Amino acid sequence: xxxxxxxxxxxxxxxxxxxxxxxxxxxxxxxxxxxxxxxxxxxxxxxxxxxxxxxxxxxxxxxxxxxxxxxxxxxxxxxxxxxxxxxxxxxxxxxxxxxxxxxxxxxxxxxxxxxxxxxxxxxxxxxxxxxxxxxxxxxxxxxxxxxxxxxxxxxxxxxxxxxxxxxxxxxxxxxxxxxxxxxxxxxxxxxxxxxxxxxxxxxxxxxxxxxxxxxxxxxxxxxxxxxxxxxxxxxxxxxxxxxxxxxxxxxxxxxxxxxxx
Amino acid sequence: xxxxxxxxxxxxxxxxxxxxxxxxxxxxxxxxxxxxxxxxxxxxxxxxxxxxxxxxxxxxxxxxxxxxxxxxxxxxxxxxxxxxxxxxxxxxxxxxxxxxxxxxxxxxxxxxxxxxxxxxxxxxxxxxxxxxxxxxxxxxxxxxxxxxxxxxxxxxxxxxxxxxxxxxxxxxxxxxxxxxxxxxxxxxxxxxxxxxxxxxxxxxxxxxxxxxxxxxxxxxxxxxxxxxxxxxxxxxxxxxxxxxxxxxxxxxxxxxxxxxxxxxxxxxxxxxxxxxxxxxxxxxxxxxxxxxxxxxxxxxxxxxxxxxxxxxxxxxxxxxxxxxxxxxxxxxxxxxxxxxxxxxxxxxxxxxxxxxxxxxxxxxxxxxxxxxxxxxxxxxxxxx
Lengths: 261, 384
Ligand SMILES: Nc1ncnc2c1ncn2[C@@H]1O[C@H](COP(=O)(O)OP(=O)(O)O)[C@@H](O)[C@H]1O
Ligand SMILES: [Mg+2]
Hints:
The complex is a heterodimer. Chain A is an alpha/beta fold. Chain A is 43% helix and 24% strand. Chain A folds into 2 domains: 1-80 and 173-197 and 204-261, P-loop containing nucleotide triphosphate hydrolases (Rossmann fold, 3-Layer(aba) Sandwich); 90-170, no CATH class. Chain A has a 6-stranded mixed beta sheet, sandwiched between helices. In chain A, helix 3 (96-104) crosses helix 5, helix 5 (120-139) crosses helix 6 and helix 10 crosses helix 11 (253-260). Chain B is mainly α. In chain B, 43% of the residues are buried.
């Protein structure tokens, strides 16, 4: 297996607060990787570094043998990094289909004059994109909602739409920030199956931030635990589960001592 | 609830609708001529002006309504279009370019200015952009006023001396008009048979064609790759960036295309008037256009078309002519009723903002959906 993404000594500081602290991290092709850790551990900030929203204060990120630190988010989308958000950020007044079409934006070729005069090539491109968007919506289980405004969809559907929009960019690496947040156990179970399906059918790697331990332990090839921006444990789910430092980070030292007694 | 106002197009269907509209558009100037004789109020020239404002408002609607950028100095591009036309056709400059070529150059020059202004400012968000564009809207007329006599020196050498580019506050006149003399030869008619001059009926059709070009472009763009990107930027710039839309390029395109509409309309307007002055492009023009877009419905191309015609005609006929005629007779002989113009629009804006904040004819997708409370703003870091 080859390495898709490698973060080398990445830090991101906000003033004196070091949200991500000299983190080394690798993602292999076709893998599901989870990052867990208490609130404020720096998980989302790490996402924001990987996706180009923040330039790392130190260190660098290499994606497909390319140094991407300092690239803008839209440039990284073009080379295969896509994401969803912890709090949903859809284009509210656009339809579900239009949201997905935005994900395809960088793959479509039409320019200003093509948009105005619509030569046959542009018509074909638009028709194809339109159809592909429909297929993607179907794939995430939103068939029938194509022409609904994003904001009018129920919460769970909005989460799926965010994933469809991210998939439309044709990512090699898909970052999901707490995709099961606010979901009931049934919906969560569906999401687990769906994330697996994505990895298997779409030939991509997934980086997942997740609080639900059941999700993390079921689907991850690798689990990484962050605390105060530092990696405190990493490995296969079973290994990490047993790691004392993890229990300590989550429950505190006293809980650990109590457990030991 | 179905809203009749939001669907002004659903009254007739298909081809019949277009045939009816075409008939109305063609008959209108002749009907207005009759009305003018009956009522003694200028009508066609006001409708012509209204249609120019519609073309301008379509450009502003791309910037404000589709891309969500607040531009308070949009009249600057109107001025640039008109003055470029002036420079290219004012006899003293010895260029006297053909109308049919000059108008496209004007659109292009305005677009280039859109990029020049946009490139440094479109990194700014919200209020900052509004302030910079406001300043730009003031600078252009001031520049025009001062370029009536300028001297350019470079390291002590005089490059240009006392050059009269814009004729200062006296303005440029006369200006080029469309030349149809080739038709005279073609049909073997007398010289001057196709001399259009200031004939309002001719200009009505010229402006209808201009507005149709602008309208066609706006409709096509609205439903295209670029149009979607504009709306995505309007909805959530950061999320759009993450989905592969380059915010700066996309906003620049909105600025440039919006400006080009304005440049084209400015050129035609200049040619129609035959004379232009810096005062024609004051701040009030930017505000008036913004009022048209907001009252009609931001982002709604048909809305801005219909709303623009109504508002600008109301302004030019009712507020500027009928009202003074009623009041200045015996009621208030001294009072300048026209000064109430802005009071009218101010009240109109307040009423609309309270009862129908999306405007009179909003775009469909916004109109028909229920808005759940959103907890998040479109700005800022994507983790909050
Ligand atoms: N834009 C920001 N400015 C200042 N501090 C921030 C910013 N974003 C995150 N932080 C801080 O960085 C830390 C890590 O935050 P975050 O990455 O959101 O944590 P997590 O996603 O693991 O819950 C927190 O202490 C948070 O307050
Ligand atoms: Mg987070």
